[in-house]
Specification:
The protein is an all-alpha fold. It is built from 24 helices and 2 strands.
Length: about 475
């Protein structure tokens, strides 16, 4: 077991611990500090968060198509391992302390398991362990994001009022805050961000604005009206000084309540006044909600809103390098708006990014795995996990690029641009995206002009995450 700790390999450690579980005396001899080290090896920031990020942009259908382990199964395996470690610790007679409970609450938060967080909260009470700020934040977060990482519910974070008379997420989170105050536990920026998230879940935007005003003196309505306000200043090391987490919260609470203009204005205002750089993740979230709100029926944003946001984020002063999923949303928007020439230009940029990033990373990971196997035999768990994650990112991005190629083949420009599109642009699509097209390509030449059919490439073996599956990616990517 000590060897497993030295290797810092979570999988190896789990197997060693399970082998030792048959020996009760051995389990009892393990110090509490060793169990704490084991918990640190199982940190969800390393084992869960990277998978959540990739699966966020994978539909369940395509996850199955590329034979990726469903994110729900990743969660179940992780939670099962953590529960087994806790069980062994209890059997060994080692009580759980505040650090251990905070780790377990963090795990519940990471997988969006509000029920598990509630059970842990009750265990803390029975064990006489007083919660601290981190405890309350993890508990609130687990409730706010309960089941939100299930891909079947990913787009269901719009305003969804609770059933009348039933205690909802806002009531539960506010009750936790009141308990926090009664115990004299100080809230931080994260606490207030989670309270705003809980309010937004039930459409209480006046409540969200009230928190901004009370904690940071930010009058949202005044700012939206085009005026500036003097914000409340906190030292940069203060727990109430805004961070980029707050920028994400702003994007989420207003985006999920169909108010992208306010989200954009407020993100810009807070970032400028608190000297924060808007991270790519926040731009991606703004773009995602803009895509959803402009594509849904009835539309709450015009389709052109995507282009306006895109041009803002790539231009000075932001100069953001979009990610492949961001390219994916924008290209679909352009095709939907019947702007295939612009879509082709953006798709070529996305293809260059794919080749330089995820495709290159996956190839590098395969080489590293092969080299390690040849030199040392067994591959360490950390290297194996990193390689598997790179392969998953590659498979996801490969699906997106393939989808772009097929969208472009089926795109329809305006009448005035039809001849140029068919005569010059479409052959360029076939040339540039050859590796992502089926061997036989067919497209129309315009009204009354028939269809062109030809072989896009010779039959050859090529690594493809779909293992030769046909056109199912059409509805899955």
């Amino acid at each position: 077991m000590l060897a497993a700790l030295r290797r810092k390999d979570a999988g190896f450690m789990t197997r060693a611990l399970l082998r030792a579980s048959a020996d009760a005396s051995l389990i009892k001899s393990i110090p509490a500090t060793t169990f704490s080290e084991i918990f640190r090896l199982l940190d969800p920031d390393r084992l869960i968060e990277p998978h959540k990020e990739v699966h966020h942009d994978l539909s369940p259908a395509y996850a199955r198509l590329i034979r990726a382990q469903p994110i729900t199964e990743v969660f179940e395996k992780f939670v099962g391992t953590v529960r087994r470690v806790v069980q062994l610790r209890r059997e060994g007679g080692s009580p759980l302390g505040i650090g251990d409970y905070n780790f377990l609450l963090k795990c519940a938060r990471a997988v969006g398991d509000g029920t598990a967080a509630e059970a842990l909260w009750e265990d803390m009470g029975r064990d006489g362990v007083a919660p601290d700020t981190a405890s309350y934040n993890h508990r609130m977060s687990a409730r706010c994001w309960s089941s939100a990482y299930d891909p079947r519910r990913r787009q269901k974070l719009h305003l969804r009022p609770e059933v009348p008379g039933r205690k909802g997420v806002k009531d539960e989170v506010m009750a936790l805050y009141e308990d926090m105050m009664s115990r004299g536990v100080a809230p931080d920026e994260r606490t207030f961000s989670l309270m705003m998230t809980a309010m937004a879940r039930e459409g209480d935007m006046p409540g969200v604005k009230s928190i901004f005003a009370q904690v940071w003196n930010v009058d949202v309505d005044v700012i939206i009206g085009g005026e500036e306000v003097e914000v409340k200043r906190y030292p940069k090391d203060s727990p109430l000084h805004p961070t980029t987490d707050m920028l994400f919260t702003i994007a989420h609470v207003f985006g999920s309540n169909n108010d992208i203009p306010t989200a954009l204005r407020l993100v810009d205002f807070v970032s400028r006044n608190y000297e924060l750089t808007i991270p790519t993740e926040v731009w991606a979230h703004l773009l995602e909600w803009t895509f959803v709100l402009s594509a849904q029926r009835p539309r709450t944003l015009p389709l052109a809103a995507m282009q306006s946001l895109w041009e803002t984020l790539i231009a000075p002063p932001y100069e953001i390098e979009p990610t492949i999923p961001m390219y994916n949303r924008y290209i679909k928007n352009l095709v939907l708006r019947e702007m295939p020439f612009e879509a082709l230009k953006i798709a070529r940029r996305g293809l260059a990014l794919y080749e330089a990033s995820s495709a290159a990373d996956a190839a590098e990971a395969r080489h590293a795995m092969a080299t390690y196997r040849a030199q040392a035999g067994e591959v360490p768990g950390a290297l194996r996990r990193e390689s598997e994650l790179r392969e998953l990112v590659w498979a996801r991005d490969h699906a997106f690029v393939k989808r772009w190629a097929r969208l472009l083949l089926g795109a329809r420009p305006s009448v005035s641009g039809r001849e140029e599109w068919v005569g010059r642009a479409l052959p360029g699509v076939v040339r540039d995206f050859e590796a992502f097209l089926p061997e036989r390509v067919e497209y129309g030449t315009g009204e009354g002009g028939g269809r062109v059919r030809f072989w896009a490439r010779e039959k050859r073996e090529k690594k493809d995450p779909e293992k030769g599956v046909g056109r199912q990616e059409e509805d899955a990517a």
